[in-house]
């Protein structure tokens, strides 16, 4: 019965599990990172879902690239009749609509109230607020522009009660603003009194809106959410309009861009291919940095049986006369010959051991220095088979 003796073949590739794990992660890290970035951009990027502020009699323009967006979805939970129009060309901001709204507000002591509007460039807003004369000067009304960066606008016209009017129990103030940029505007009312007050707020707005007569497609939210399919591959313009409901309360709609997934997959695949080619050029993915181990046994491997002795027997040979001397002489001469023509010596310089092999033929015949000289020469052929050499890889003996 034999005891199995296992060993790796000569010139075996040595790589530890940790090294293989690191190489696998190095190759997968870039695609995984890109995939994560694409997923986040689809959900929270430029074309991510958003909650849009809009007011009565508003007209808001949205630009969407049909290369990345398949369709636009608008949801109005209040179902107040938001209309959505689609254009292949940018519409003109040429129409004008006038609307007026008036409400009573109760503002707590040292508190504030307000409401949001969306106004386009060229619009005008005139505000008038009334309160008791004793409280009027403690009321502050302002118009603030912006969604992320806030800016308090200065009115182009204001009016205050004169001395004769101060004797009246109820008085008013007025302010007028001219809109120079499309943006969200917030009307803020601050009560600096120690008591809550009841005030009347009225607004007269001359609003610029977009011309929707040339729209290609349209839908309404009266029956629920509506969707607009964008025509590929041109840039599409979407206009969201609202009716006048006579209310100053906040009005929000949910806007969603349904991504064109095929485009993102194509871009991701292209980037992954480019990164793979770069890594291949740098030698990361083709094994340039692999270490080959020459584990060819220096002595022949014998089969071991259960009845075999622990120590190998020494071979004895008879000596007759001068045979011993001849053997000694022959041994010394054969030893020098083996040193010169040993299979482990370089066939070019006969000085160093063979520590490399050629690709693709696989012959291991020279030392690494001689192999480099062959690669730097003009022929670049293997000295054994005369095949063209593409690479030289070093062998390391443990």
From TrEMBL:
Location of the RING-type domain: 346-386
SUPFAM superfamilies with a match to the protein in the record: RING/U-box
Gene source species: Eucalyptus globulus
Matching PANTHER family: LIGASE, PUTATIVE-RELATED, OS05G0521000 PROTEIN
Annotated keywords: Membrane, Metal-binding, Transmembrane, Transmembrane helix, Zinc, Zinc-finger
SMART domains with a match to the protein in the record: RING
Transmembrane portions of the chain: 261-282
Protein name as it appears in the record: RING-type domain-containing protein
InterPro entries assigned: APD1-4_M (IPR032010), APD1-4_N (IPR032008), Znf_RING (IPR001841), Znf_RING/FYVE/PHD (IPR013083)
Region (Disordered), start-end ranges: 304-338
Source organism, top-level taxon: Eukaryota
Gene Ontology MF term list: zinc ion binding
């Amino acid at each position: 019965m034999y005891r199995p003796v296992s060993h790796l073949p000569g010139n075996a590739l040595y790589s530890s599990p940790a090294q293989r794990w690191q190489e696998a992660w190095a190759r997968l890290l870039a695609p995984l990172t890109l995939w994560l970035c694409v997923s986040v951009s689809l959900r929270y990027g430029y074309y991510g879902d958003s909650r849009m502020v809009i007011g009565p009699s508003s007209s808001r323009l949205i630009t969407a690239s049909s290369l990345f967006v398949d369709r636009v979805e608008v949801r109005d939970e209040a179902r107040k009749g938001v209309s959505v129009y689609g254009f292949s060309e940018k519409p003109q901001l040429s129409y004008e609509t006038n609307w007026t709204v008036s409400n009573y507000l109760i503002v707590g002591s040292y508190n504030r109230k307000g409401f949001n509007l969306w106004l386009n460039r060229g619009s005008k807003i005139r505000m008038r607020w009334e309160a008791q004369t004793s409280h009027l000067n403690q009321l502050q009304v302002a118009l603030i522009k912006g969604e992320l960066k806030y800016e308090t606008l200065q009115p182009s016209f204001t009016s205050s009660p004169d001395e004769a009017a101060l004797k009246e129990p109820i008085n008013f103030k007025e302010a007028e603003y001219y809109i120079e940029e499309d943006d969200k505007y917030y009307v803020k009312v601050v009560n600096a009194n120690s008591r809550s007050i009841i005030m009347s707020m009225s607004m007269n707005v001359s609003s610029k809106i977009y011309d929707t007569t040339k729209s290609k497609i349209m839908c309404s939210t009266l029956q629920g959410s509506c969707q607009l399919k964008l025509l590929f591959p041109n840039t599409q313009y979407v206009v969201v309009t609202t009716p006048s409901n006579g209310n100053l309360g906040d009005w929000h709609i949910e806007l969603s861009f349904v991504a064109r997934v095929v485009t993102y997959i194509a871009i991701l695949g292209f980037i992954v291919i480019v990164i793979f080619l770069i890594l291949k050029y740098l030698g990361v993915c083709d094994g340039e940095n692999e270490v080959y181990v020459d584990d060819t046994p220096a002595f022949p491997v014998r089969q071991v049986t259960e009845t075999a002795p622990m120590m190998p027997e020494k071979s004895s040979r008879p000596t007759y006369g001068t045979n011993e001397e001849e053997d000694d002489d022959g041994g010394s001469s054969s030893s020098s010959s083996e040193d010169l023509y040993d299979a482990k010596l370089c066939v070019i310089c006969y000085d160093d051991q063979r520590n490399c092999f050629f690709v693709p033929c696989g012959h291991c015949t020279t030392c690494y220095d001689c192999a480099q000289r062959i690669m730097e020469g003009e022929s670049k052929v293997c000295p054994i088979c005369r095949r063209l050499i593409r690479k030289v890889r070093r062998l390391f003996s443990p």
